[in-house]
Amino acid sequence: MLRRTVVPPIKSQGIKTKLLPFISQLVPASLSGRWVEPFMGTGVVGFNLAHGPVVMSDANPHIIRFYNAIKSGQVTPLCVREFLEVEGERLRASEGAYYYEVRDRFNADGSSLDFLFLTRACFNGVMRFNQKGGFNVPFCKKPGRFSQAYVTKIVNQVEAVSQLICGGHFDFRAANFQEIIEDARSGDLIYCDPPYIARYSDYFNSWDEKDERALADALSSTSASFILSTWSHNDYRQNDYIDSVWGEFPRITREHFYHVGARESNRRGITEALVFSPDLEPRVAESVSRGCVDALV
Ligand SMILES: C[S@@+](CC[C@H](N)C(=O)[O-])C[C@H]1O[C@@H](n2cnc3c(N)ncnc32)[C@H](O)[C@@H]1O
Fold first, then answer.
1. Where are the alpha helices (DSSP H) in the chain?
2. Ligand 1 pocket test: which of 16, 58, 183, 209 has the largest number of ligand atoms within 8 Å of its C-beta?
3. Domains of the chain by range and CATH?
């Protein structure tokens, strides 16, 4: 059963908000161990589906710094409101040029508030870094971006996430996935959402066959249960690795539509897949019979 969706204050491409009901079908109602999420991204999956103690990690240290700043009380709803009101006004007065000052400042000192500002003012809400690790997404071209209503929306998202984090057991770590999976044990549930192989890549999202195989080795050796998000096919291409790397594990699929920008014509269909450890298989049979997933392979 899903709680009211907690929407993370940071944005990123590949965010799994719309796939939460699909993923939730594999998540046991209770866990004897921890929720372990080595590719947390915005955190939307763990924030909505985890129960019990949580370990969330990512190779991108900016994400981890941001959530640790919320956890420690360094970033609060109040300070986010003050910051976005002041910086939003500077952005408006500069007709957008100030965005690039904030981007330079963030790339020099990595402030969590600047990170939030950038992910909410950049083009298409994507999170991309150049080969030197610098945030390089251009401005969304809306100088009045931080209206009162938009600031309030972000502040409410920070509030919801801080209540969750401060009321639970959340451990955020900047780490490579292997370290986190090696640390998992029986009773834990590992949810993996790595960059999709053979698709977009940047400083924190380069992902090739070697990485995919290393992830498969790590998940094959763990005594924890696991769920992996990946893609199966679209109208033009097939993900060949789904059989060559993950073929020994069960999987379910579901068609999904991503929107690139606002236009309906930019709606792209893809068949998403969840590969999982065999112990989770009994959870799936019921979903297939209810027609909630397209197929159990
Ligand atoms: C597809 S995104 C995860 C999206 C997330 N599930 C969400 O809904 O927001 C993949 C994430 O993996 C992280 N990542 C890439 N390579 C990694 C690695 N080797 N170890 C750990 N994290 C990695 C990226 O920084 C990125 O945040």
1. 20-24, 44-49, 61-72, 77-93, 98-109, 112-121, 148-166, 177-182, 209-221, 241-244, 281-289
2. 58
3. 17-59+178-202+219-296 (3.40.50.150), 69-165 (1.10.1020.10)
